[in-house]
């Protein structure tokens, strides 16, 4: 990773030039030969009719969503003992006390920054039967290179299930980049679906479901390799500080099933009442001890369950030595207060947030105030003397785009989910919870390096920043955006 020595404050106005040629272009040879999956599992046979029936059943009866899908469940994913967590002052009573999926032993690889795109193209090149993709953004030269692989695999007879966010980039330069890829896909005859956002709950008092997104960054190849993390696939993201995981093992079977279920969701509004944003009661499994390989499980925010926030709060409550958060957006009050409580009991809590001063990519040039929404959390941390800093970019237009939490260097949550109330309840998000293995410690090492070399400490907010914080609080309370 580049050193920060001698860096001056960058100009944040321009975004990365879309026409710039990335270093990871498709014509570059892949770095490694195709490996064998770390388990004997390849793609689990999926009966589309069974999946559609299951999707309809869950939509009609959301109270049973946490039951397993016997037709789709891999037989060798062992259920761990169910343990219901006891409520504490740090876990609000309205949250679910349990999490839905099962820990399993998996091979997990960590990829960062500019290594993510070539790894993605490499993994897609291994496909022989089935590719499942669910992405928030697919645009520009980055998205076009990925789309070319999907089209080529489609022509080779590989089934390609491509799902995108229905907003297709919203507006501005991001929409222009996405439109370019959509045009290419249509010209090449590769069809795609958009995630049916109407199945997600809505709780915003004024905006209701407006601004809802399918924020996933998920790829599954042949049911054997799964990619999950925070990186978006368009040109504006190519300089970002971000991570993706490549996983092989039983967890990929769960990802495959989850994405098949999303693919089968009815595209039109369900006649049944839209679910409340209040999280359902979920199943919980005990902490697993890893030996060499990471224990992992999926955390979701979707039409049937919302598990990320509870697991995040549980780990904050249970942390004994350290909590490190490199995070793009942090505004959820419960999470902020839990971090403050952990700091007060002596845990080494450090939060590195993106300063949110990069030109907006989705709003067609409309002005976006700096530091939103992170300024409220920063204000609370300053008052409580919790060590919190702004990320200091070393490239123009760079964001700290990670959505990561690391606990005691042994556990981590990684994925698409920002730590905001909206992301926890009304957006489509997926993260992975890791126990043991090499990845949590590696993430902690990278955090320590960024904290030392790429951070800016502040001691107080300026009057303008205090005004921004008050504005965000008002929006959050009366409009429901964050």
String of helices and strands? HEHEHEHEEEEHEHEHEHEEEHEHEH
Strand-residue fraction?
Answer: 15-25%
* CATH fold-level assignment: Endonuclease, Chain A
Describe the biggest sheet? Answer: 15 strands, mixed
Shape field: globular
The CATH architecture category equals 2-Layer Sandwich
> Would you tell me the structural class of the helices and strands?
alpha+beta
Uncertain parts: 1-31, 63-99, 275-292
Count the DSSP helices.
11
Describe it for me?
29% of the residues lie in helices and 17% in strands. Helix 1 packs across helix 5 (250-264) and helix 6 (308-318) runs parallel beside helix 7. It is of the alpha+beta class and 482 residues long. It has helices at residues 48-60, 116-125, 140-155, 172-188, 250-264, 308-318, 333-344, 374-384, 421-425, 439-453, 463-478, and strands spanning 104-112, 130-135, 159-164, 193-194, 217-221, 225-229, 243-248, 294-301, 322-327, 348-353, 388-391, 404-407, 411-415, 429-435, 455-457. The protein has a 15-stranded mixed sheet with strand order 4-3-2-5-6-7-1-8-14-13-12-9-10-11-15, sandwiched between helices. It has one domain: Endonuclease, Chain A. It has eleven helices and 15 strands.
In short:
The chain is an alpha+beta fold.
Write the layout of secondary structure elements.
Layout: H1 48-60, E1 104-112, H2 116-125, E2 130-135, H3 140-155, E3 159-164, H4 172-188, E4 193-194, E5 217-221, E6 225-229, E7 243-248, H5 250-264, E8 294-301, H6 308-318, E9 322-327, H7 333-344, E10 348-353, H8 374-384, E11 388-391, E12 404-407, E13 411-415, H9 421-425, E14 429-435, H10 439-453, E15 455-457, H11 463-478
Parallel strand pairs: 2-3, 3-4, 9-10, 10-11
Antiparallel strand pairs: 1-7, 1-8, 2-5, 5-6, 6-7, 8-14, 9-12, 11-15, 12-13, 13-14
